[in-house]
Hints:
Elements: E1 14-17, E2 24-25, H1 27-40, H2 49-53, H3 60-66, H4 74-83, E3 89-90, H5 94-103, E4 108-111, H6 116-125, E5 134-136, H7 149-157, E6 168-172, H8 175-183, E7 188-191, H9 198-202, E8 208-210, H10 213-219
Parallel strand pairs: 1-4, 1-6, 4-5, 6-7, 7-8
Antiparallel strand pairs: 2-3
Amino acid sequence: MTPPTSLPDTPPGAVVFDLDGVLLDTTENMRHAFAAVWAAAGRPGAGPFESFLTHMGAPLHVILEKFRLTADYAPVYAAASSARLDLVLPYPGVTEVLRTLRAAGVPVGVATGKSHQRAVEALRSGGLYELLDVVVGSDQVSLPKPDAEILHTALSLLPGAPHAGERAVFIGDSVLDLRCGHAARVPTIAAGWGQSSRATLLAEGPGAFAATPRDLAGLLALSPAGPGLREVPVG
């Protein structure tokens, strides 16, 4: 089956977001935490952080394994991350998008590679947690992204399930996010303000590309653009 590449022409029944690089700018927080792990492992320098970012969307222990670091270092990363939550900030315009979705009665969830506890911690720090209905972390499912399980789980827990998921949209900023949306047969919008390049995201065939949260608001009909979701060029 080919992945869905068209967005529905009616308002979404639900919206699910990835977290890092979509709702919250966690880059500097992650840089700090990764450097702490690298130092704890006795390795020189701050570590290949840019390479670390290319694995976003996967559970932390899976990413650490890419650098020959065992899961024993996950608590080091988590502690360093928690100690610098001041570095976690919502992207400009994201809070307004979430508030408008809530005012419109659209159920909103998060499906993230973070553990549930760490995701909630970051979302609370960024002031977004109260604007969400459901947060699902990678530790709450058997198979991480790009498998569809985490997205299906989030949709099943949203108010109005299962009907909300019939017109759902998933928004992510990584290759794993977009492949997860395709696997779940859920139209997916690529968030261009996150960790991945436009070319990388477009190569995955998203239903649409939003360069900014303001663009996303237009796609979700949260601006004067008119009713329903609009198809936009993705090339």
